[in-house]
Amino acid sequence: STDAIALVEEIRKGEPLITASCKEHVIHLVRRLQEKLGEKEDHKFYLFKVLRAHILPLTNVAFNKSGSRFITGSYDRTCKVWDTASGEELRTLEGHGNVVYAIAFNNPYGDKIATGSFDKTCKLWSTETGKCYHTFRGHSAEIVCLSFNLQSTLVATGSMDTTAKLWDIEKGGEIVTLSGHSAEIITLCFNTTGDRIITGSFDHTVAVWDVDTGR
Q: Where, by residue number, does the polypeptide cross the bilayer (predicted)?
């Protein structure tokens, strides 16, 4: 019975991405969630679909924010985009010269996809058309993790070369290299406001970096 409008106002205080223009939509979603929580049914998970996705093993999967689309990366050097409800393959993103290992949507927007490969490059794609906007080159070893900032202005890549790099989505260039780990960087993540990024490495350490300075 919590007032949805008051609840959304409270959420907005801590979530800069919820702007006035999308407030009504969020209120609608909160009300739907309240209705769901009020239902007494026992919901059980069941197998929805099995998709024969790639000719070689998969490496990673990722949903867009709404869950209407998902992507799969594979040893077959491609990333595929799928419609969740129908299970239909929408398009295949081709162009990498080796395993496509790290994949992500630029959530919450979902109009772009980044793919990181063992070919040492990261590619930026259009979700709707499959067009490749940019190929980011600069790592000297395999890319094994990547992440967009929430503002969808940067993509970060982590590599077996012990560095992470930040790339400009609009211009397609490298902004800064994060150097300091002594072993492979296998995970990374931006904070909500996008001014910090953390990296985790096989050197047993986690590093927190300033995005503007790369230190």
A: none
Q: Is the pLDDT of residue 17 over 90?
A: no
Cα 131 from Cα 113, distance rounded (Å): 10
Residue with tokens 């202005």, as numbered in its chain: 153
Give the rounded percent of residues in the chain with a pLDDT score beyond 90: 76
Environment class of residue 48 by beta-carbon count within 10 Å: exposed (0-12), middle (13-18) or buried (19+)? exposed
For residue 5, count other CB atoms closer than 10 A to its CB: 13
Burial of 55 (0-12, 13-18, 19+ CB in 10 A): exposed
Measured distance CA(134)–CA(170) in Å, rounded: 9
Structure token digits, residue 71: 């992507």
Whole-angstrom Cα distance, residue 215 to residue 213? 5
Question: What pLDDT is recorded for position 105?
Answer: 98
